[in-house]
Amino acid sequence: MVTSLSKRDVQKPAAHLRYTTAWTTAGTSIAEARHAVSALLAEAGHQPDSRPSQDAQLVVSELVTNAVRHAPGPGGLTLDVTPDRTALRITVSDSSPRSPRLGPHDPHRIGGHGLHLVQQLCHQVHVIAAGTGKQVIARLRLGRSGA
How far apart are CA 86 and CA 92, in angstroms? Predict the structure, then answer.
């Protein structure tokens, strides 16, 4: 996984902000994924301590954690901020063909709440089969930058 976000990692063609990284089975860092989304959203005008940035960090953390935990092979993360800076598309790819399953809500269960949180925070979540794996795509509304 990329250890730091540099100017070459954030591309701005036509006011579009994007971050992308890939990983193998070793060396994946959830903290680096959270840092990447925080830095990208700061570039888009959303401060790291703002609600949209905090929500995005949680969603990225949950989706990347699920990919690392439940898929045996390589994976990837792509973050796309809309040109108007009001939405973020999070795409996490992994090598497992199995779609994530939302378990029954159980407030007494330890763990297993990540997908519930992702669905609560995002206005859209869907899965696309991709060869021997899948992509989980979540769209998160950010509101206006600087808010």
Answer: 20
Distance CA 48, CA 79 (A): 16
Locus of tokens 């949680």 = 58
Question: pTM for the whole thing?
Answer: 0.83
Beginning with the edge strand found earlier in the chain, give each strand of the sheet holding 87-94 in spatial order.
17-23, 75-81, 87-94, 133-141, 124-130
Answer yes or no: are the C-beta atoms of 139 and 119 closer than 8 Å. Answer: no
Query: How does strand 133-141 pair with strand 75-81?
Result: unpaired
9: which 2 tokens? Answer: 């990692």
For residue range 13-56, what is the model confidence (pLDDT) as tens digits? Answer: 446 799 999 988 765 689 999 999 999 999 999 999 999 999 99
Nearest to 125 by CA among 38, 63, 39: 63
Distance between CA atoms of 57 and 40, rounded to whole angstroms?
11
Joined together, the tokens standing for residue 84 give 């108007």
Residue 34 burial by CB count (10 A; 0-12/13-18/19+): exposed, middle or buried? buried
Q: Which residues, 6 or more positions from 145, have their beta carbon under 8 angstroms from its beta carbon?
A: 44, 45, 46, 85, 86
Q: With contact defined as beta carbons under 8 Å apart, do 28 and 6 qualify?
A: no
